[in-house]
Amino acid sequence: MTDKEVTITNDTGLHSRPADLFVRTAKLYDSRITLFKGEKSADAKNIIKVILLNASQGTVIRIEADGRDEDDALKDLTSLIESGFDNVNTRVTI
Question: Which residues in the chain show pLDDT less than 50?
């Protein structure tokens, strides 16, 4: 298991399009991926749960990945957030 904290930088936070892109990216990996915002957690492969975290701009979240491809999953999801969901080299098409 590995994890990393990252700050949401885009204007809309993890809502609508960014949440969709995040979830679709998470689903590319076999690892179990969980998002944490304070005491709240969400399955990163479930769009409703991710949106219900209500992670707005400036929110620090922790991404936890557990599985055979955890390092790649964590790297790609962290890069996605740090880029503000723009101009990212991802296998997911918008």
Answer: none
Asked if residues 23 and 45 have their Cβ atoms less than 8 Å apart, the reply is yes
pTM: 0.89
> Is residue 48 domain-resident?
yes
Residue 77 burial class via C-beta count within 10 angstroms: exposed 0-12, middle 13-18, buried 19 and up: buried
Closest CA to 78 of 33, 43, 42: 33
Active-site residues, by number, are 15
Q: What domain count does the chain have?
A: 1
3 state SS of 5? strand
Torsion of CA 8, 63, 74, 17, to 10 degrees: -50
